[in-house]
Design a protein that fits this description.
Mean pLDDT: 92
Low-confidence stretches: none
Structural class: alpha+beta
Length: 290
Amino acid sequence: MKEGFLIGGGLMIAGLALELCVGPVVWDAFAWPANGIVLAAFLTMIALMFSLGKKFYVFQFIGTYQAAIPAMVYAVVLTIVMGLTRQKVGGTWLNDMLSFWPFVLIYVYIALILGVIILRRIKRMFSGRRIRVNDIAFLLNHLGLFVALTTATLGNADMQRVKMITAIGGPEWRAMSQNGTMKEMDLAIELKKFIMETYADGSPKRFASEIQILTKSGKNIETIVDVNQPYEVEGWKIYQYGYDTQMGADSQISILELVSDPWLPLVYAGIYMMLAGAGCLFVLGGRKRV
């Protein structure tokens, strides 16, 4: 266990050194196809560590609980810090943890441990003995976590989040990215009607937008976008974001947020695998009690 904490501490120190020398992680540099290449290289490294585990002690150690538990302790501490500090893009070290090198390296290390453990379990499952329910549950839980962790991390570079100000009387093709630059979209949105319902004191109860969506592929869609009820079209989720607060219910504009996250289905797949694994454990536990 001491070795596990030393490795984790070494990664923290290495991360701090990288933070001081090169600055925070620039996720935009990992946009497709770079993230696909990184993922392929990472999977190859896991396979090599697994196959060479008997020859090198460090590779054998990575697939043990003595390595996993200290890594999880470091990850939990960093995640708690992230939860207790306000997070914003381009913030200080603790205010932008997703780009903080020690945070990233610890989670990469956890993914590495998971990968080696998964391959070892698969080898045991197909070593000639009968496959049991707990083997399937273990594999679903760990493989699901691995898929969700890696795809959420690498897919971050391909996620786009922009804001579009739509108005009554004409379609809008442009949207503003997070860094303040204008971007021409592959769809246009025109506000047909702004909808607002208020409480007795005049405060907003509900606000939504009746919009028309035009795409370059020829689609012409009329729909209503409500708060927490986005509309999805051609890889974009359209959310109701804001309006002209001075005009209130008479607002002639509506601010929409458009989000594209092509890796999200893979993240969901990992989550569903973990849920399936939990279901297997529940069934297994019920059988044992009987």
